[in-house]
Design brief:
- This protein is mostly helical.
- 71% of the residues lie in helices and 0% in strands.
- The chain has a domain of 221 residues.
- The protein contains 16 helices and no strands.
- It is globular, with a radius of gyration of 25 Å.
Length: 346
Amino acid sequence: MKAKRVLAARTDGSCPDATVTSPAARPAGIPPRAGWLIVARKELADHLLSARFYILLALLGLVAAATTYSASDAIRSASEAASQTPSVFLKLFLLGQDPLPAFYVLVGFIVPVLGIAFGFDAVSGERAEGTLPRLVSQPIYRDDVINGKFAAGLAVIGLILVVVTAVVAGIGIVRLGIVPTAEDAVRLGVWLLVSVVYVGFWLAFATLCSVAFRRAATALLVAIGLWIVATLFASLLATLVAGVLAPAPADATADQLIANATMTDTLSRLAPPTLYSDATRIILDPSARTTSSFVLTSQVYRAVQSTLSIDQSLLLVWIQVVGIVALTVVSFAVAYVLFMRQEVRS
C-alpha cells in the first residue's frame, strides 16, 4: 500500500520530492536527455514509409531469392557430396552458379548502396528544404540531430538485412530441407553484425558528404564515386602501387614474386570492400583457413584438414573487423565534428 501511495504521489505531482518525467512538466529551455531517440523515431518512421525503403528492400529481396535458388540447385546437383559437407546450410550464402555470383558477393556489392541511399541527404536535404534551422532550434541538443539520423538509418538498413537473410534461410530450408545447426546460426548472426557495421561505414561516409556539401546531388556523386573506386578499381590500384614499391620484372626471382604478391595483397586490404569480403568468407565458411589471396606450398604442407570453430575463425579476421569498425567510427566522428562546427542560419 505504501508503494502504491508513493507511485500515486509521483504521478499527480502532489509530493514535492517527486521526480517529474513528463515532457510537459520539464522546465522550459532544458532539452530531454535522450533527444536523439526522438529524432531517430521520427526519421525511422519517415524511412519506413518512404518509397526508397520498399524499392531497396524489393531489389535486395529479388537478388537474395535468385542467388538462393541458384545455390540450392548447385547443392541439390551434388547432394551426395553435400551431405558430407560440414555447415552445408551456410553454402546457401557462399555458392553461386553462372551467371549469378554467390549471395555474400552480391550483398557486399549492393549493401553500400543502402548506406549511401539513406545518408546522402541526411543534412543537405534538410538544408535544401529550409528545415534545418527549425530542426536545430527545437529543445534538443544539436548533436541529437546527427546522432538520431545516423541511428535511424542504421536501424532501417539492419532491418532490411535481417529480412533478406530470413528469406534466404527460409528458401533454403523449404527447398533443401536443411536445418541450420547452432554454430551455423551463430556464424550467421556474427555475419549480420559485421554487415551492419560495414554498411554503417558507408552510411557514415554518406552522412559526412551530406554535411560537407550543401547540395544532396554533390554528396551523392562523391559517395558513389568513392564506392565505385573502392569496389571496382581497388585491386588495380593496389597492383600498380605494388609494381612500384616491390617490382617484379619479367625475369623476377621467386623472392621478388612473393614480395610483389604480398605487397599487392596488403595494399588491397586498405579498401573497405576487401576487408568485408575477407571477413565474410572466413565467418561463413568454417573450412577457410586463410585470408590471403595466395598460399605457399610450405604453408599447405602437413596442414591438418579440419574445420574451424567460430572463435578460431574470428581470430583470423579480427584485424579486418577492427578495420571496418575503425573506418566507421572515424567517418562518423569527422561528420559529427564538422556538423557541430557549422553555422546554421535561418
